[in-house]
Design a protein that fits this description.
This protein is an alpha+beta fold and about 475 residues long. The strands form two sheets. A five-stranded mixed beta barrel has the order 4-5-6-8-7. It has a two-stranded antiparallel sheet with strand order 1-2. Strand 5 and strand 6 form a beta hairpin. The radius of gyration is 39 Å and the shape is rod-shaped.
Length: about 475
């Protein structure tokens, strides 16, 4: 008999704005009764999950020998034949029909627990492709747990399929059932995956990986429960523990990203969106089209938050190899950048009287009454002009045009890389002046404002003064011809 272990890839509906929800998909790995489950990318190797072969019972009416413990008996030959047919039926749907017949004809049987194990195993095989059996599977798992409270397979399957059955509006009873099962998986994981239970044909690495994958299923179920109860802190913790146990879950990274994003925890949310977009295996990954949509969303959300795409590539690269963001992840928001720049500007205003005056002039020339401010306060005035003891402004040379005999020099005063002042000269600057007026070099100046532009901001000075620099070539003196 063959059993199938489902690997549901939960749809990522509503993980990002827009229609980015792929259809629910699942992968299945096959295991024969009594044999280890081996497959590329095996999802879980669960000790004791397969229902054991039934013990051969005594013929109906046969009495045990003196001193022997009474064995389980079939009611009659027909029950035994029905059981035998079940064990020989490969098709799970046909096997389920036979199990139902057994249940109907022999409601009372010595093998009720074993029958429940076969029900659970068969329904578990059908659940990935047939949603209609999932509720029945949960019911049979619940029955089995009443007979065997530590049945690991039943707890695992409830953890796996309970969220899919409950969806966004689960009943309190289902939430309780899933909680109990998932907690049972976590508390029983070391027993189920004890080293003594590792099949000889399974490597230590695969056995350990399967253990982590199983723990992740339980934490995913608990995260779903927490979200259903509006316990976002609890859901966040369980998603994190799930990805720690099994990093190979692109769909869970997407759900975790949505949870963080909705709580405005943008840096880790952006990382998890990047992870969901970049993850391609070895475990189940989201469909390529969905990953493309998530990449587009990440790029837009990152730029909206940070103000530019700077640093986005580094996060995408990190997310390729890590399911969780590093502890030192830092993505500065536009608001934080603006606050930082404002604080730096204020500190500069407080410490630099010349910059304070320049900044005040800029504010006036970029405000609502810029033209009136320019005409009444700036145009044709010598500035700084010694006001408040300020005799010169200081800027960094950004360009000089033409380079050999410039008549225009562009400076950056507020930011050495952004032009905001232009010095124009009626005569080309002499070669001697170019020793001090070089690109990247600071220059002090004062002069009469001639014109301005509001956006981008630029204030132009005509024939300014640059202390210590001769701006015109010295006059040439000819030699007088001697008269005879």
């Amino acid at each position: 008999m063959e059993f199938w272990f489902p690997i549901p890839q939960v749809a990522v509906a509503a993980t990002v704005p827009g229609d980015m929800a792929p259809a629910v998909r699942c992968a299945r790995f096959r295991k024969k009764a009594g044999m280890p489950m081996l497959a590329a990318g095996v999802f879980a190797l669960l000790s004791g999950m397969i229902a054991p072969p039934f013990a051969v019972g005594q013929e109906a009416g046969q009495q045990p020998a003196a001193g022997q413990q009474a064995q389980k008996n079939y009611k009659d030959r027909a029950e035994y034949d029905l059981y035998s047919k079940i064990t020989q039926t490969q098709d799970p749907k046909a096997r389920l029909d036979l199990l139902k017949q057994w249940e109907e004809k022999y409601a009372q049987t010595d093998f009720s627990k074993e029958r429940l194990e076969y029900f659970v195993a068969t329904l578990g095989q059908l659940a990935p492709s047939d949603p209609s059996v999932r509720q029945q599977l949960l019911g049979k798992c619940d029955e089995l747990l009443k007979a065997d409270p530590k049945n690991f397979r039943a707890m695992y399957l409830i953890s796996l399929w309970g969220p899919a059955v409950g969806g966004a509006s689960p009943s309190p009873d289902l939430l309780s059932q899933v909680d109990s099962a998932a907690q049972g998986v976590i508390s029983g994981i070391d027993t189920a995956f004890d080293a003594s239970k590792k099949p000889a044909t399974v490597s230590e690495a695969d056995f350990t990986k399967a253990k982590g994958q199983t723990v992740a299923v339980a934490h995913n179920a608990l995260a779903w429960e927490a979200v259903s109860k509006k316990d976002m802190a609890g859901a966040e913790q369980h998603y994190k523990e799930s990805l720690q146990a099994n990093p190979d879950q692109g769909n869970i990274s997407a759900q975790y990203a949505k949870l963080l994003y909705d709580q405005k925890k943008f840096p880790p949310a952006l990382f998890e969106y990047a992870r969901a977009a970049e993850y391609t295996g070895p475990g189940p990954a989201l469909p390529e089209a969905t990953r493309k949509q998530l990449t587009d969303f990440f790029n837009k959300a990152y730029k909206d938050y940070h103000g530019s795409a700077d640093g986005a590539d580094q996060i995408l690269a990190q997310a390729k190899t890590s399911a969780l963001p590093p502890d030192n992840l830092a993505v500065t928001s536009q608001a934080d950048l603006a606050n930082k720049e404002a604080a730096e500007t204020q500190a500069r205003i407080n410490s630099d009287p010349a910059f304070k005056m320049w900044y005040a002039i800029k504010q006036g020339l970029t405000g609502d009454n810029a033209d009136a401010f320019f005409g009444n306060t700036v145009k044709d005035f010598e500035i700084p002009g010694g006001a408040d003891g300020v005799k010169t402004f200081t800027g960094t040379v950004i360009s000089a045009d033409p380079p050999d005999r410039p008549t225009k020099v562009v400076l950056g005063i507020e930011d050495p890389a952004k032009p905001d002042a232009t010095l124009t000269f009626s005569q080309p600057l002499p070669a001697s002046a170019l020793d001090k007026i070089k690109v990247g070099q600071k220059v002090d100046f004062s002069g009469v404002a001639d014109s301005y532009t509001k956006d981008p901001f630029m204030l132009t000075f005509k024939d300014p003064t640059i202390p210590g620099v001769q701006l015109t070539a010295p006059a040439k003196h000819g030699t007088a011809r001697r008269r005879r």
